[in-house]
Amino acid sequence: MEYIIIFLIGICATTIGTLAGGGGLISLPAMLLLGMPAHSAIGANKVSNTVSSFSSFFHLYRTKRITWKEAYWIIPVSIFGGMSGGFLASRIPADKMMILALILLTFAFITSFIGKGSFTGNGLLKINKISLPGLYGIGIYDGLFGPGQGTLMLYLFGHLNISYLRAVGFVRLATFSSCIGAAAMYIAYGKIIWPMTLALMLGSVTGAQLGVRIAEKLKPQFVKPILRVATVALIIQVFVRAIQ
């Protein structure tokens, strides 16, 4: 029964995470409530995210919604950003990281009302003075803290005039890139409880495929309201953790 619950958690969290980011709001607390040790729960999420993120990216790549020529540079930038964030994490106090997360998420929420991005554009993803530092900066944030990485990236791609479906594909590739190194470390240090992790992974892959197919049908005018709800939920979670 426990494995079925974890499988369902994976479906729910990754479906939401694919559409708007913030899937970790569901999966990580749920795994902890089921009694999984913290490091094992984080490791299970990293392993499942690695596989599920690539599966949704590959679906959009296979159906020619995105091209490798646009996407390839996301991988080294996200990996390097995540490594930079991991390096800084040991030097920045936890309470300062919480403040940084609250500032970034609040800024993203406010700019969603005044920004030009509407996810209806047909722009191409190129390396420029906004996309490169933006992706690198979010990669640092992911390595430092994590929750909200996908949501922040969706805001960035919306600002860059990228259509919603293609933005989802780019976010999933970035998530794959940032998670693969962390997943390898958790595996190497023996933190993975494989039966639970595999149940979560199967649910996550299912959720990723469900999420990307919902995204294919989602009208652009509904994207920002969904993102705003996810952002507010993230802000509340971070604030609660900050005052505990």
Automatic annotation (TrEMBL):
It comes from the Bacteria. Belongs to the 4-toluene sulfonate uptake permease (TSUP) (TC 2.A.102) family. This is Probable membrane transporter protein. The keyword Signal does not apply. GO terms for cellular component: plasma membrane. Its main location: membrane. It is a multi-pass membrane protein. The keyword Transmembrane applies. The chain crosses the membrane at residues 7-28, 71-90, 97-115, 135-157, 169-187, 193-214, 226-243. Keywords: Cell membrane, Membrane, Transmembrane, Transmembrane helix, Transport. InterPro entries: TM_pro_TauE-like, TSUP. It comes from Neobacillus piezotolerans. It is found in: Cell membrane.
